[in-house]
Amino acid sequence: MIYLNGKWIYYNGTSWNNVNDSSTETVYTIDSSLTGLKEAASAFTTSMAASSTNSRIGIATFNYVGNLVSGLTTIGTNKDELVKKISSIYASAGTSPQLGLELALEQLEKNNQENVPRYVILFTDGAPSSKDDKAASELQAQKLKEKGITVYTIGLKLNDNTKKWLEDNIASKGCAYPASSVDELKTIFKNIQTTITHDQDMKNAQIKDVIDPRFVILDDSGNPITSNYSGIDKGITLKNGGTVYYDKTTGNQYIVWNEQTIPNSKNGKWKKPITVKAKDDYIGGNDVPTNISPDSMIHTGYGDAVLPQPKVNVKAELKVMSNALCEILDLTTKALLFGDMRAATHVEPLEEVIDHLRDTIKDNHIRRLQNSRCTIELGFVLSDLLTTLERISDHCSNIAGCVIEVAHNCLDLHDYLGRVKKSGEDFDAYYAMYLNRYQLPTPEDDVPPPTEGDAPAT
User: Fold this and answer.
1) What span, in angstroms and rounded, lies between the C-alpha atoms of 93 and 211?
2) Is pLDDT at 99 greater than 60 in this prediction?
3) Shortest CA distance to 37 belongs to which of 201, 188, 263?
4) Distance (Å, rounded) from C-alpha 309 to C-alpha 240?
5) CA end-to-end span of the chain, whole Å?
6) What is the 3-state secondary structure (H, E, C) of 237-265?
7) Are the C-beta atoms of 138 and 169 separated by less than 8 Å?
8) Using CA atoms, how far apart are residues 448 and 1, in angstroms rounded to an integer?
9) What gap in Å lies between CA 140 and CA 103, rounded to an integer?
């Protein structure tokens, strides 16, 4: 009897039956080595289904004959049926391991997939029935290992001679596990499952990263790989081993790495850097993904996995100016309401920086017009916005100047502000600080090529 999908069910020898909540029927289970094996194997199957859905599992039993309970089956979509088949196994006379190993080899060879590791887990609670069975089992185990198949053995409550025989003649090196109890048996199955799903390198993988259309990949010299880049039809291969293409249907840019080996978690991570840059016509934003999900994927013999989405902050010209305006408003408020002279002296240098931002943004717009990346109509909107923002900063400058004027008994605001700009080291220092704080994104034409040792953004 097993608990599956929220229900108790039992096998009557021919079929599975539900146990109703109101049932008074009595079902007996036997606490035996076989029961422990079925519980451990069922837990192994359930765990494999969760961690490696595209893996395939087959089940074979052996006594005096071999029986293929289930051929290799994809575990993710057939977990319940596999658990039922494991739970319906029964014991019979005879122990001929070679018959089970022979069936395992047939299934693995018949359904072989290139670059996918293969395993056999042999469970037994006793020694082979005869010397012939022992010799035949050794021969079959050798055939499996010669095919590159890893053989695990699990022996429950065995004597020392049988333990040693399994370790020396059947199991792959370091893959023989003796168990003295059912609880230990379950732990061994769990450890093997972890090893299979986490400790193996995945070979012949393909990694495809589809780039968000707001960005473009740069070549090894720092130049954008656009859709009309020379040679793009055949792909542009970078020093990192990836090849850049454009999808003719969607127009999306993507980079592909083929025949890659993805190391297991103990040996590190697969990592390839690429440099991407926001396109000139993208106004910017925060936490912007640089690739498209779920199109960006890892394809392996185990199945597919969606790549994570790296996110970056892309400076927007108006966002930079808006942030500067928020700060000058905050400084002006402190100066006016609380008489904060330190805040007041910071206003005029910041206002000068905002004037600089306005002029630079206008220059950048003219450059975009010349490169046909913007329109005159949008330029009118931009000009109005810049004028409004700059006027607000001018008002802040006047308010802060008045606060300082009153504090110094000076009645000529314009004369005072003129002297502040020309005089002091403080003004120059504050201006340099704010100019560095509020830097605009560099136009694409001015991007310097990456130098050796740069850490490109991914």
Assistant:
1) 62
2) yes
3) 188
4) 19
5) 52
6) ECCCCCEEEECCCCCCEEEEEEEEEECCH
7) yes
8) 70
9) 10
Q: Has this prediction a pTM greater than 0.90?
A: no
Pairing type for strands 285-289 and 297-300 reads unpaired
Residue closest to 175 by CA, chosen among 146, 202, 152: 152
Taking the C-alpha atoms of residue 405 and residue 403, their distance in angstroms, rounded to an integer, is 5
Q: Please give the DSSP secondary-structure letter assigned to residue 291.
A: B
What is the residue-wise DSSP string for 210-244? Answer: EBPTTEEEB-TTS-B--TT-TTGGG-EE-TTS-EE
Q: Is 304 in contact with 52 (CB distance < 8 Å)?
A: no
How many CB atoms are closer than 10 A to CB 137? 26
Q: Which residues contact 269 (CB under 8 A, 6 or more apart)?
A: 263
- 135-165 pLDDT tens trace: 999 999 999 999 999 999 998 888 999 999 9
**Cα–Cα distance between 147 and 118 in angstroms, integer?**
9
- Residue-by-residue DSSP string for 363-377: HHHHHHHHTTSS-HH
169 touches 24 (CB < 8 A): no
For residues 424 and 430, give the distance between their C-alpha atoms in angstroms, rounded to a whole number.
10
**Confidence band (pLDDT; 50, 70, 90) for 256?**
very high
In one-letter notation, the amino acid at residue 143 is: K
Judged on CB neighbours under 10 Å (0-12, 13-18, 19+), 451 is exposed
Which residues make Cβ contacts (< 8 Å) with residue 28, sequence separation at least 6? none
Residue 52 has pLDDT above 80, yes or no: no
Residue type, 377: E
